[in-house]
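Hi V.,

Quick status before I head out on leave. The structure for the redesign project is tokenized and pasted below; the design run finished overnight.
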């Protein structure tokens, strides 16, 4: 049974995650070690089967980035209402990272 309190909590979590997601995408577009970790985190949310993410990598992030990752992850606490890559205008960016990183089939 969904209660008003539960709906309000979910709305708050989604609002926090929606604020954090563009910051993570901006960092993930860089070329630092932290950028790579954040990019792998976002790709893991995009497609966890294809892009495995080792949660211990979160330990290497600055505290503010850790909190942003947790905020984005919390948006999906009850199952995603909207997939992470569909929540932002940067969906094309995440899809491009996936295409660049996905193992390509050998041509025949």
């Amino acid at each position: 049974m969904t209660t008003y309190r539960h709906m309000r909590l979910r709305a708050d979590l989604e609002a926090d995650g929606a604020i954090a997601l563009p910051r993570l995408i901006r960092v993930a577009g860089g070329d630092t070690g932290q950028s790579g970790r954040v990019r792998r985190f976002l790709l893991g949310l995009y497609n966890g089967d294809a892009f495995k993410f080792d949660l211990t990598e979160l330990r290497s992030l600055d505290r503010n980035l850790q909190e942003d990752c947790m905020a984005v992850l919390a948006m999906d606490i009850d199952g995603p209402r909207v997939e992470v890559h569909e929540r932002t205008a940067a969906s094309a960016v995440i899809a491009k990272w996936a295409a660049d990183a996905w193992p390509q089939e050998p041509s025949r």
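Above is the designed sequence. The chain is about 55% helix and 0% strand.

G. will cover questions while I'm gone.

Best,
W.
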